[in-house]
Amino acid sequence: xxxxxxxxxxxxxxxxxxxxxxxxxxxxxxxxxxxxxxxxxxxxxxxxxxxxxxxxxxxxxxxxxxxxxxxxxxxxxxxxxxxxxxxxxxxxxxxxxxxxxxxxxxxxxxxxxxxxxxxxxxxxxxxxxxxxxxxxxxxxxxxxxxxxxxxxxxxxxxxxxxxxxxxxxxxxxxxxxxxxxxxxxxxxxxxxxxxxxxxxxxxxxxxxxxxxxxxxxxxxxxxxxxxxxxxxxxxxxxxxxxxxxxxxxxxxxxxxxxxxxxxxxxxxxxxxxxxxxxxxxxxxxxxxxxxxxxxxxxxxxxxxxxxxxxxxxxxxxxxxxxxxxxxxxxxxxxxxxxxxxxxxxxxxxxxxxxxxxxxxxxxxxxxxxxxxxxxxxxxxxxxxxxxxxxxxxxxxxxxxxxxxxxxxxxxxxxxxxxxxxxxxxxxxxxxxxxxxxxxxxxxxxxxxxxxxxxxxxxxxxxxxxxxxxxxxxxxxxxxxxxxxxxxxxxxxxxxxxxxxxxxxxxxxxxxxxxxxxxxxxxxxxxxxxxxxxxxxxxxxxxxxxxxxxxxxxxxxxxxxxxxxxxxxxxxxxxxxxxxxxxxxxxxxxxxxxxxxxxxxxxxxxxxxxxxxxxxxxxxxxxxxxxxxxxxxxxxxxxxxxxxxxxxxxxxxxxxxxxxxxxxxxxxxxxxxxxxxxxxxxxxxxxxxxxxxxxxxxxxxxxxxxxxxxxxxxxxxxxxxxxxxxxxxxxxxxxxxxxxxxxxxxxxxxxxxxxxxxxxxxxxxxxxxxxxxxxxxxxxxxxxxxxxxxxxxxxxxxxxxxxxxxxxxxxxxxxxxxxxxxxxxxxxxxxxxxxxxxxxxxxxxxxxxxxxxxxxxxxxxxxxxxxxxxxxxxxxxxxxxxxxxxxxxxxxxxxxxxxxxxxxxxxxxxxxxxxxxxxxxxxxxxxxxxxxxxxxxxxxxxxxxx
Length: 945
Prior knowledge:
Helix content is 65%, strand content 3%. The protein is mainly α. InterPro entries: AAA+_ATPase (IPR003593), AAA_16 (IPR041664), P-loop_NTPase (IPR027417), Sig_transdc_resp-reg_C-effctor (IPR016032), TPR-like_helical_dom_sf (IPR011990), Tscrpt_reg_LuxR_C (IPR000792), WH-like_DNA-bd_sf (IPR036388).
């Protein structure tokens, strides 16, 4: 269809939502904004048409004329059809400007009333197309929007290509899309499969920007499904959709639709239902294979890592030749990675498996159950080849699940455990529900909390044994994460099921300790519950729960500044130990790490957390990995390794969002890392997200840390009043929680410095005094050094410059000795600002800049550079009349002489506006003048001399 528009308004009209192609869209938008052309390319279903429509809607208002065409495969044999779509409605407007030969040839080609052909009228047609575009562009900019260029008829492609190469500076932009399955863009666009190959490439100007659209990430697939009406899918299902679709948005949506329409969703471990619409994409090619070759590919689709050797062992004697034929048809990858047989797209494998009958699938799995060398694979195939219950098959699956767990593959263990439960007959020594619960606990470890919760809820519908019911309740609680308020009703039921069994009661009271901390916001109550849980577990002989409870008790005592913290950690570390608890993020190792970090023993803390991270990765403990990535980032941030901290924090956040575990805490830490080593805008957004998530979950413990991160981000961004507002909330929250250790959040220095900038000097001193008292009691030397830095700024605001410089120098030395690099650099920066005030100092910021550069603290480095360019007046410019004033008074008066406002003076001297006003009042009194106008007169008298 051809569209003609007159430009009547600005660009930026509402366009179709684009998910997952933001980077590609931004590149295309920048090119179009410069007046250039764009060619979008990628495989079928990747979103080219969606991006094309969005960009066309945004940029169409900037053109006077918009020409559109969208080719189809069924019409690609019709010559000049695309040209007719583009020019049909505008030809009458410009035909009179064309030479007679061009007009005749073009009208004949577009209307079909003559016998115009490229062979007979080639030059006239080529010149006619170029003339039409130039005539339209003479009236205003032209935008050509062409979708599915791969189906463009060859005549139209050749004519458009001729014109595009000769447009030069003519204001004609092209926005096109073409299907390219091959990532080698140039090779594919010139392949014989495309109608414009003979023209030497696509019909676009030579400087056209080619933008390849790539597959979506798992998080983007999840967002797309939510947006298109398939929300709330379990994360394990979204993972399967992402894997099967290969990140292709069209395929993902079709799979989501099939799941929504299916009356019986697949059980864990079963393949997704592949709708007919997607099967049709590959079945035509599959039908070109002989039956035996199709059976070989079915065996390959059933295998986890198929190889020619595996296929041979499974009875497929002609596997190499059959796979070679499949590769020729585009079903298998033409460039295999090592010995593996790899499908060209995961959907091909899924469609092939879905199309097979149940009997064919069982036969494929039966062959693989003896051919596979790995015991886990053999057990899985045996289960899928067997119908009904079978105690021997169930036992082999349970053994395979144990092996997978030992290998650090808890997700595989969960899948095998569910298969074992399905084949376990009722009434045996080990029942099916016991195996389901073990699978649910493996799913928790693997971060698949939706699956774990669903399994536990299913068990609770029929279980009568108290131990099984309590275990199931524990899974439900664990799956809730930080949103423990959502499962409040579970606790009374779990206590009732536990009865008077100390082992079961210990499990419930351990979770009640977490509830007291997260929902109630009461550290003292949480500590009491943890101690009670440890006592019950010891009485019941459950060493694992006892250690978990002791570790929790130690963590709360550390954060509270409780005097028993070190002794409780020692109890938690006594023998015998449990390897699982030793590395768990709520276990003994984590409690010891927190104690080391808060004591500023950074080298030991780093070694401890690095070892823990290595171990949980080996075990596949996803939630612990998210937690320890965050903890290692915090350690590096404290040490002043901001670049490393930023990388770790971002990795933790990606994993948290991918699994839905610890998103708020990871956003909080990522905010701190961005504020120190990245972008303050991102820091503010992440802190806001962390606050929102903590409030939604009712998580008081992380709310205080999220607010501290928000206050820090606002402070670094230069918004002191907003920083004060956030940090005052933290000051109110923490005492109510029972937190007295200032090393927990280390926000006190930020609040005091922000209060100085807003003129609340007395309140700043009060914050410092309270925090100092607790830091002295707990021997928090790093906190004391930061408080010294903040107090030095309070003294500077009061005009005590010499004392402030001495205190800052001492604070910087202490922070350097402790290895707290970023805080050391901040002290150097504050010191440079005080020393530079009132004297020339183009190099006085060098030390602060060096330290921030060493830390890779980019936001702070930018502040140093800005301060270095904004120096107060040198002392030789100060008139003799001001020599009797104190240092701060002389600096303020000198800046008034330069014409600076009170706000500008406050920013340049690193003090508050109220401090400037109070200082000016003293200046007026000492000089015997009444206003800043009199100071300006002094400046004028100096210039007259």
